[in-house]
Amino acid sequence: MLSQAVNNEHHLKKWYVDPIYWRTLLFVSVPGGVALALVWFAWNLFEGERYNQKLQADLEIGVVNHAVDLESWFTAAGQHLAIARQSAAVRRFHEDPKAATDALLIRAREIPNLMQLRIIDLAGNEVIRLDRRNGQVAVIGNDDLQNKADRYYFQDAQNLSEAEIYISPIDLNVELDVVEVPWRPTVRLATPVMSFAGNQEGLLIFNVDMSLPLSTFIRGRDGVGTIRLLDHDGYWLAGMPDNMLWGFMTGSTTDVGRSDPALWQRLRAIDETNSFQYGDDYFYVERLRLSDLLGEGYQISSGQDAVGLYVMGVDAAYKRMFAPEARDILLLFIGGALIVVLAGYIAFLVVKRKASTRARLQVEGQLVRAQRMASLGQIVAGVSHELRTPIGNAYSVTTTLDEQVDELQGLVDPGP
C-alpha cells in the first residue's frame, strides 16, 4: 500500500509526460485561443467603425475649411475685379492711361494678394501693367510690356460678354516664357473692359497670388494624413511632394488619370462631396466648380462651369485588424500566454486529480481485499472450530478403544 502511494507521488512528479496533461492543455488552449480571436475581431470591428467615423469627420472639417478659404480668396478677387471694371478711369484707359494706372495702383495697394494687374488690348498687348515685387507695387514701363496673344488665358477670355468673368486654371507664373522660380502659384481673373459707347476695348486681368492659400494644404508623412488639391485634369496642385506637383508645367506624368485610373474615375463621378475607402486610405472629397468659387452674383464664361477643383482629404483607414501595431502584437502575445498558462494549470490540476483518484481507488481496492481476507479468515476459523470438536471426540474415542483393546488382549493372552 505504501509502495503504491509512493508510485502515485512519483507519477505526479512527472505530470508533464502524462498524455492527459497534453490533451487537457490542447482542449483548453484551442477554445481559449478562438475566444481571444473572436474578442479581437469584435473589438476591431467596433474600434474600426468608431475610428473611421471620427476620421471622416476630421477630414470633412479639414476639406470644408480649405474649400471655404479658396472660395473666399476667389470671391474677394472677383469682387475687386468687378468693381475695377466699372471704374471710369479704367474704361477710358486708351484715352488716359495714367489715370487708369493710378486707379489700378490704388486697388493694388489695398489688396495684397494681387500680384499683377493688367489691361491688355484686343491684340494681346499689355497697355498697363502693375507688378508686386518684394511687397511693393511697381508700374512696369512701356519697354518691359509684353504681348500675351499666345497665352491660353488671353485666347480663352477674348469671347467674354460684358458681365462675364473668366477664371484660369491655377498654374505657375510665367515670365518671358520661363516658369518663375521660386514657384508662384497663380490664378488669373479676366473680364472685358467696355467703353462708355458699349464697345470692348480690351481685357482687365488680375493675377492672384495663390501661394498663401495653397501653403495651408497639409502634406503628411509618406503622403498619408493630408489635405490635397487636384485640378480638373487630375494634376496635383498642393498637398503632395514637390516632384509630384504642377505636372502639366514641369513635364512630369504625375497626373492621377495615368497613375491611378480607377481613383480618377471615382473622383470624376463626384458631383459635390463624397467619402469612400480606396485601398488602405480613406477619402473625403469636395468638388468645387468655378461658379462656387466666385459665389453668387457673378457670371463665369460659358463652358467653364464643368471646370473646377477637387479638395481632397486623405488619411490611412483603420487597418489594425490585419496589420496590428507593436502594442497590439504585445497584447495578443500576453493574452495568448495567459491562456496557455491557465490551460497548463488546469491540465496540471486535472492530472493531479486523476492521480489522486487513481490512488484513492487503489487504496479502496486494497481495503476491500483486506476485508475479504479477514472475512475468509473468520470463515476458516469457524469451520476449523466446528471440525475440531468432532475430530477431537473421535480421536478421544479411538484412543480409549485402543487402550481397552490392549488391555483385553493382555487378559486373553497372558505372558509366558
Can you walk through the features of this model?
With 416 residues, the protein is α+β, with helices and mostly antiparallel strands. The chain is built from eleven helices and 15 strands. The chain has helices spanning 2-13, 19-85, 88-91, 97-110, 152-157, 211-215, 247-250, 256-259, 261-268, 290-294, 326-412; strands at residues 114-121, 126-133, 136-139, 164-167, 171-172, 174-175, 178-179, 185-194, 200-209, 226-231, 236-238, 273-278, 281-289, 299-300, 308-316. The strands form three sheets. Strands 1, 2, 3, 4, 5, 8, 9 and 14 form an eight-stranded mixed sheet that branches. A hairpin with a 2-residue loop joins β12 (273-278) and β13. α1 (2-13) runs antiparallel to α11 and α2 runs antiparallel to α11 (326-412). The two termini are 73 Å apart. The model has no long low-confidence stretch (mean pLDDT 84).
Principal-axis shape equals rod-shaped
Q: Report the span from N to C terminus.
A: 73 Å
Rg of Cα set: 52 Å
Strand content: 15-25%
What is the residue-averaged pLDDT?
84
> What structural category characterises the helix and strand content?
alpha+beta
Secondary structure tally: strands: 15
SSE order:
HHHHEEEHEEEEEEHEEHHHEEHEEH
Give the uncertain stretches in residue-range form: none
DSSP helical segment count? 11
Helix content: 40-55%
Major sheet, described briefly?
8 strands, mixed
